[in-house]
Amino acid sequence: MFNSWSKFSMKVKFVDLKQRYEEEKVELLECVDKTLKKGMLILGDGLRDFEEEVESYTGTRHCIGLNSGTDALMMALWSCGITKDDEVIHPAISFIATTGAIVHVGATPIFAEVDIDGLIDTDKLETKITQKTKAIMPVHWAGRICNMSKIIEICEKYKLVLIEDSAQAMGAYYGGTHGGRFGKASAFSCHPLKNLNALGDGGFLITDDDEVAKKVRLYRNHGIESRDNVTMFGVNSRLDTLNAEVLKFRLKRLESIIERRRLNVGLYKKYIKASCVCLPEENTKAGTSDAHVMCLAQVPDRDSLKNYLSKNGIETMIYYGTPLHLQKATLKFGYKKGDFPVAEEICEKVLALPIHQHLTEDQIYYVADKINKFYSSSH
Fold first, then answer.
1. pLDDT at position 377
2. What DSSP string runs through 285-331?
3. Dihedral sign, CA of 324, 330, 333, 334?
4. pLDDT attached to residue 227
5. Would you list the DSSP string of 62-123?
6. Which pLDDT value is given to residue 378?
7. Where are the domains of the chain?
8. SS (H, E, C) 30-54
């Protein structure tokens, strides 16, 4: 059926935001019109409407819209009392904002080994706990929820605060519970590469803790309770009303987007015949499902494959080529190569394949065909 594609070149974008705009143009312009007509660009009704939609979708008591997932992480840590001299354990694989948020509240990041899925290895987690440990912050990497049963057990055993980095977890579940519902606070990102994405940066925090919610709502708006009543020194970290309207609209499509991405992963598994390519296996235990934010393949000779695919019009990304403990910014904490061998090997082999919901089966077959040809000719 697809044999003819091997004779032709095809462009396959890693993300196609332009095509998404064309598909959503009418609805997005309606969001702009609605927001501008109301004239409330900051803290308008649309923001609270979006927050309530997230509360309903995730089953949480409070959602607070913020200007980025990074700010959501910092405010989650701060509002839960994490401060100077505290240690926060998190995995050695994540975006740098995970570590940066810990540093910015004055705490010390403690890296932990990951399992083969890039999630924090709960079998090795307790070895990282010291008298200074205040919190554990698992990262639901690529939209897969960590082993929360074990993490909760460890947090309760050592009386530690559980804070979730759920930047990629919108629409993911663990045992019937939405990701981010397990900890005292959880941070989400609405960056353009996420499944639920804004027109630029955006994020939000969810919590069932009334005091945490109150503190974060104040802190995101300069600590202002009313025009003439400022109760703390806060920051400007408000999710603007226009992006809130866009996110509210896109939330309605989230389930269909995730399902399309799930199908795309299935097509890769169907068409990639090279046995050396390892594709992610979804956790399908009762009530558990992934958000499929990324399709992270483990491949040998990764850089050569990436260059080969690029020459054939296929965009791929590396998430990430360097684990957190080996970043220049984190070397001051005393870590070295070899400290986390699983994380280091994953970073050496990881390649993110296009997975977005606009891909056609022809395009996925084309990508798979090129991967098969690369390994059949070079290995």
1. 86
2. STT-B---S-EEEE-TTHHHHHHHHHHTTB--B-S-SS-GGGSGGGG
3. positive
4. 86
5. EEEEES-HHHHHHHHHHHTT--TT-EEEEESSS-HHHHHHHHHTT-EEEEE-B-TTSSB-TT
6. 62
7. 22-251, 254-378
8. HHHHHHHHHCCCCCCHHHHHHHHHH
Token pair, residue 224, equals 């202002």
Cis-peptide, bond into residue 320, ω within 30° of zero = yes
C-beta separation of 188 from 180 below 8 A: yes
Tell me, what amino acid is at 314?
A: I
Dihedral-angle region of residue 81 (phi above 0 means left; psi in -120 to 50 means alpha; beta otherwise)? left
CATH architecture of 254-378: Alpha-Beta Complex (3.90)
Per the rule left: phi > 0, alpha: psi between -120 and 50, beta: everything else, 59 is left
Q: 22-251 sits in which CATH class?
A: alpha beta
SS3 23: helix
Nearest 10 degrees: CA dihedral of 49, 294, 20, 164? 10
* Residue ranges for the chain with pLDDT beneath 50: none
